[in-house]
């Protein structure tokens, strides 16, 4: 049959349906009108009718034997478990659960990780003040000797303020703005080990006089004089003797281990245990292989 | 005892009633399987599988034509058999000699080649139709066998192959067109009653 002889798909289907009595009512009348006018359709109808007659005329192949079941066969069929579909469904179910686990973990990690990066963690927040205190703790402590209001040398007669090897001027310390100034007048900005510039006795006396005239020094002196302070020994009160006052090196050491496990838990946090995942994967494989083996054995 | 009574008894577990139903429809089932598979042994296996499957699924029968329901199971068994064949393809029928070279006229072809005198016989017509049926794609072949050989109507075929009416109509039309093209190739080998007489129409 050439391409021109071939009927369009729609006509071909309509012709077959008409021939088999599947066209009714309006459709049938419409097609019969077209058929009456078209030689091509008439030819095709004749060919199809011949073909159908020939196919229907094929001899019926009689069954070579009876396919009836014996009682034993029937019992065996009823007993036979339907393992292949069961294993197949089990494998599929395990695979779906596994996919669900991985998908939910992926979503959890994808959407929770950026938020965790934006917000400082509790550990980081708790570590911040301790780091500050550690920094503060690293600042040199100022020790006063002989009371805050100038016990000892007094006046301009300090003991060799700023002598090398002695960090701060001893004696005659006067608190100014929260810091202590030795009688020599050396400001304790100098780091330990750095010798203070020695002042002459006239300069020291002038500075001391100037300090006494400042209201801060005057007020402080008044407040301090109102209640007698506990004497300090090397900057430590007697009542605090034998106790740990500051432990900043340990604080620093603690900061790292506190933050490290927290970060670890954040990165390695998983919704489902690894053992469960491995178990699911094993179930997928085992059931799948069994189902496949049974299917191929059929 | 009517078919409906037999069905009810069979569903209730009566093996004798079931076997009587099998005897009633086994020829139609085997014939359809044979036309779909083009192989008597495979058709026998498929029919047996279908009977076993039918016995197992008896409680899922929900009325309607028992023959159509049985043919549906047979068709599924044929599909399974065709899939098995695809997984384990048979030795290709390439005419090669011992040295692997193609042979123009192998002996097994010469033996089966129809002569001009035999061409007009019914056996030749049957062979030609069966050959063309086997050449059809599986989906077209099944529809053609169910409609033109098993005598099922379109609606039953829809239920058997689980496809809509439009698909059944389309597949049947394509199947017939392809069958016709194939049979034209046999030309003078076919008896006159099926040979297409173009000159008459023109």
Report on the structure:
The complex is a heterodimer of chains A (298) and B (202). Chain A is elongated, with a radius of gyration of 51 Å. Chain A has three domains: 9-56, no CATH class; 72-141 and 245-298; 142-234, no CATH class. Chain A has helices spanning 9-19, 25-37, 39-56, 71-79, 83-118, 122-138, 201-213, 215-226, 248-268, 274-297, and strands at residues 174-176, 179-181, 232-233, 236-237. In chain A, the strands form two sheets. Chain A has a two-stranded antiparallel ribbon. The model of chain A is unreliable at 146-196, 215-225 and 251-260 (pLDDT under 50). Chain A has 298 residues and is mostly helical. With 202 residues, chain B is mainly alpha-helical. Chain B folds into two domains: 1-88, Orthogonal Bundle (Rna Polymerase Sigma Factor, Chain: A), CATH 1.10.1740.10; 116-202, Winged helix-like DNA-binding domain superfamily/Winged helix DNA-binding domain (Arc Repressor Mutant, subunit A), CATH 1.10.10.10. Chain B contains ten helices and no strands. Chain B has helices spanning 3-11, 15-37, 40-56, 66-87, 107-112, 122-135, 138-149, 154-161, 165-184, 198-201. In chain B, helix 2 packs antiparallel against helix 3 (40-56), helix 6 (122-135) packs across helix 9 and helix 7 (138-149) crosses helix 9 (165-184). The longest helix of chain B is centred in the N-terminal third of the chain and has 23 residues, at 15-37. Classes of the chains: A mainly alpha (298), B mainly alpha (202). At the A-B interface, helix 1, helix 3 and helix 4 of A face helix 2, helix 3, helix 4, helix 6 and helix 7 of B.
């Amino acid at each position: 049959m050439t391409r021109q002889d071939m009927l369009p798909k729609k006509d071909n289907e309509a012709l077959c349906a008409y021939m088999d009595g599947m066209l009714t009512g309006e459709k049938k009348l419409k097609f019969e009108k077209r058929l009456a006018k078209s030689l091509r359709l008439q030819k095709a109808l004749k060919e199809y009718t011949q073909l159908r007659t020939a196919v229907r005329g094929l001899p019926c192949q009689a069954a070579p034997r009876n396919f009836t079941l014996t009682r034993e066969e029937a019992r065996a069929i009823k007993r036979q478990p339907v393992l292949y579909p069961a294993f197949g469904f089990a494998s599929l179910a395990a695979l779906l659960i596994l996919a669900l686990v991985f998908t939910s973990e992926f979503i959890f990690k994808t959407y929770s990780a950026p938020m965790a990066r934006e917000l400082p963690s509790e550990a980081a927040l708790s570590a911040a003040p301790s780091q500050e205190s550690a920094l503060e703790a690293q600042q040199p402590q100022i020790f006063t000797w002989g009371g805050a209001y100038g016990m000892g040398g007094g006046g301009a007669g300090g003991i060799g303020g700023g002598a090398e090897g002695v960090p701060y001027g001893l004696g005659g310390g006067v608190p100014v703005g929260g810091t202590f100034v030795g009688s020599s007048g050396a400001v304790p900005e100098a780091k330990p080990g750095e010798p203070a510039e020695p002042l002459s006795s006239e300069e020291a006396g002038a500075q001391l006089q100037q300090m006494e005239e400042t209201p801060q020094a005057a007020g402080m002196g008044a407040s301090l004089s109102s209640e007698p302070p506990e004497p300090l020994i090397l900057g430590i009160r007697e009542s605090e003797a034998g106790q740990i006052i500051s432990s900043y090196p340990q604080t620093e050491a603690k900061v790292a281990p506190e933050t490290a496990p927290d970060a670890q838990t954040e990165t390695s946090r998983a919704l489902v245990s690894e053992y469960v995942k491995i178990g699911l994967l094993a179930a997928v494989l085992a059931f799948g292989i069994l189902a496949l083996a049974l299917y191929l054995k059929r | 005892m009517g078919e409906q009574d037999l069905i009810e008894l069979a569903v209730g577990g009566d093996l004798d009633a079931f076997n009587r139903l099998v005897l009633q429809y086994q020829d139609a089932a085997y014939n359809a399987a044979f036309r779909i598979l083009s192989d008597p042994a495979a058709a026998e296996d498929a029919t047996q599988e279908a009977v076993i499957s039918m016995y197992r699924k008896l409680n899922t029968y929900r009325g309607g034509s028992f023959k159509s329901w049985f043919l549906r199971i047979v068709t599924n068994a044929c599909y399974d058999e065709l899939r098995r064949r695809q997984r384990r393809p048979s030795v290709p029928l390439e005419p090669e000699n011992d040295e692997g070279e193609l042979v123009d006229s192998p002996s097994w072809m010469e033996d089966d080649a129809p002569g001009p005198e035999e061409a007009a016989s019914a056996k030749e017509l049957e062979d030609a139709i069966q050959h063309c049926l086997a050449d059809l794609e599986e989906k077209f072949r099944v529809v053609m066998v169910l409609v033109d050989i098993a005598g099922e109507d379109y609606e039953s075929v829809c239920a058997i192959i689980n496809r809509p009416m439009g698909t059944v109509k389309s597949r049947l039309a394509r199947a017939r067109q392809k069958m016709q093209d194939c049979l034209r190739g046999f030309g003078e080998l076919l008896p006159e009653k099926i040979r297409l007489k173009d000159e008459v129409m023109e």
